[in-house]
Amino acid sequence: MAAELVEAKNMVMSFRVSDLQMLLGFVGRSKSGLKHELVTRALQLVQFDCSPEVFKKIKELYETRYAKKSSEPGQPQQHRPPEALSIHSSYDRGSTVARTSLSTPNIDYPALYGKYLNGLGRLPPKVVKPEVRLVKLPFYTTLDELLKPTELVPQNNEKLQESPCIFALTPRQVELIRNSRELQAGMKSVQVVLRICYTDTSSPQEDQYPPNIAVKVNHSYCSVPGYYPSNKPGVEPKRPCRPINLTHLMYVSAATNRITVTWGNYGKSYSVGLYLVRQMTSAELLQRLKTIGVKHPELCKALVKEKLRLDPDSEIATTGVRVSLICPLVKMRLSVPCRAETCAHLQCFDAVFYLQMNEKKPTWMCPVCDKPAPYDQLIIDGLLSKILTECEDADEIEYLVDGSWCPIKAEKERSCSPQCPILVLGSSDVNGLLPTPNGNGENGKVTADVVDLTLDSSSSEEEEEEDEEDDDDDGPQPKRRCSYEKGLVSAC
């Protein structure tokens, strides 16, 4: 069986594009892509799904090709494969899969690819098929592309499909992974990740998982992010679609790795790609933003002037705009004022908390205007950063038309004065909590005069007359008509 596999591989490696497409079409697999992609797909077929029918088809294509070539005039009548591809094989862990390095010194492209017109053969213009592209992720820096986005092609009419992929790391890639630092126990910063998206070539695609997804790496299943719970009735929970880290289940060596993606076939087309990446932290992104993303204070000042410039069509002249120094995300004072360059407002949010929030759950939406604020569009407001160091006793400022600014004090600071007299409502016994300038009362308790704010001046005079008439041995009794509890009230 091993000899047949080696023979089948050698025959496949000598195939032309048309032969590879016929072989892949025979087993119902995708025929699109460049030649090296078709060769990889055919080798996977030979290794894992080489049935007697498939081996027979490979042999038939091989013999048909060389039978035609040997019958051409000027060709020697011999039956041997051309040296179109050089193969370097080695075997690991008992596997019969060869790691191959391919080279194409002199590939003969026959006139089969063109049509004859007026006795002259010419090749048709090469059509460049657009490829699926994935959006760049701020927390991942791509080091190598191990597998370009490749479409998941269903093999039958079953709802649950499996698509295998085999690959081996180069010595340089192995060294990168082994020498990288650990983000946490068992997680390296350099990783091999799997990304899945819709098969759509019109624009860069965001990560999107197909239904019933499962990923198996060699002999173990890899954990896939679960669903976010939904608190709204009738709303289905959403799954956070992010790259899947495969590194901890791989052979971080020259051995061959096998990845199998199980997915639900429900009409939509998906593509998968493999990448060697370096994962970044929010602290590293913040440091990079501080290095390259600071907008000069003079440019920010010019933006303020532009915002407050008199509009001739407006009936109301804008003399200033208020900006809070409190972050709308965490309700704390700003430390690194930040906003997206595409935002129309001057209000900032704190870059530290914004990056930490997107590290946990990436949304990249501005907390002020609720519009997209991706990392590559963030800027640090140099003018507001300077204001934060100069204005420590205010939580809000106002920009003026000339680009200057002034602090806005809190209302309670402007309304109260430390010289305000304190009036006491209640009885003369205040439980010993209020000292008086006259000293202490009986039993060590503090006494205080009582002012009834519910009485006007006329009623006060009448009550004084009644008190004089009713004066007896028991002494004058203070009349209390106020229903307030004991306490202090500011008179200012």
Quick structural summary:
The protein has 11 helices and 21 strands.
Structural class by secondary-structure content = alpha+beta
Using DSSP, what is the number of strands? 21
Fraction of residues in H or I helices: 25-40%
For the biggest sheet, the summary is: 4 strands, antiparallel
Strand order of the largest sheet: 3-12-7-10
Poorly predicted spans: 75-123, 415-448, 453-460, 479-492
Q: State the end-to-end distance.
A: 99 Å
Apparent shape: elongated
Report the total helices. 11
What's the mean pLDDT score? 75
Strand content: 15-25%
**Rg for CA atoms:** 40 Å
Highlighted features:
four-stranded antiparallel beta sheet, 492 residues, single chain, alpha+beta, elongated, disordered C terminus
Describe the structure.
The structure is a single chain. The model is unreliable at 75-123, 415-448, 453-460 and 479-492 (pLDDT under 50). The strands form seven sheets. A four-stranded antiparallel beta sheet has the order 3-12-7-10. The relative contact order is 0.08. The protein is an alpha+beta fold. The chain is elongated, with a radius of gyration of 40 Å. 25% of the residues lie in helices and 21% in strands.
Secondary structure layout plus pairing:
Layout: H1 2-13, H2 17-26, H3 35-48, H4 52-71, E1 115-117, E2 120-122, E3 140-151, E4 160-168, H5 171-179, E5 182-184, E6 187-188, E7 190-198, E8 214-217, E9 220-222, E10 244-245, E11 256-264, E12 270-279, H6 282-292, E13 294-295, H7 297-308, E14 320-324, E15 337-340, E16 349-350, H8 351-360, E17 378-381, H9 382-390, E18 396-400, E19 405-408, H10 411-415, E20 422-425, H11 457-469, E21 487-490
Parallel strand pairs: 13-17
Antiparallel strand pairs: 1-2, 3-12, 4-11, 5-6, 7-10, 7-12, 8-9, 8-11, 14-18, 15-16, 15-17, 18-19, 20-21
Helix pairs in contact: 1-3, 1-4, 2-3, 2-4, 6-8, 7-9
